Amino acid sequence: MKDIVWSEILSVGVGEIDEDHRKLVNIFNILNHAVMEGESPDYLAATLEELINCTVWHFSHEERLMLKHRYPGIEEHKAEHRELIKSAEELKREILQGDKPVADEHIEFLERWLTEHIFTADMRLGSYLSRAM
Length: 133
Fold this sequence. Notes:
The protein is mostly helical. Helix content is 77%, strand content 0%. The protein has one domain: Hemerythrin-like (Four Helix Bundle (Hemerythrin (Met), subunit A)). The chain is built from four helices and no strands.
C-alpha cells in the first residue's frame, strides 16, 4: 500500500484545516508503514488510536468553525464525522481482539475513510469557509 502524499489536490483552501489534514495524513502513513513492517497488534492499535484521537480533535475543530461561521450543512457534516469515528473504532476493536490481522484491506479502508471525506464534505466546507472567513 502506498503512502498518501499531501498535495494541493487535498487542500480545502483553509490553512488551519489543511494543517490538521496534513497531520492526519502523516499518522495514516505511520500506520501504513507499521502494517508493512509487521509491527505488533498493540503497536498497530496504539497508532490507530492516535489517528482516531487526532481525527476526533480535528472534527471538533471543524465543527467549531462551522458554528462560528454558520455553515448551513453543519448537521449533515457532523453526522458524517460520527459515522467515520464509529467505523474507525470498530476497526480498532477488531485489531485489539486479534480476530484478524491488519491487512491491506484495512489500510485501503482507512485511506478511503480519510481522503473521501476530504474530497467531498471538507471541500464543500472549505469552499464555504473561504468565502465566510
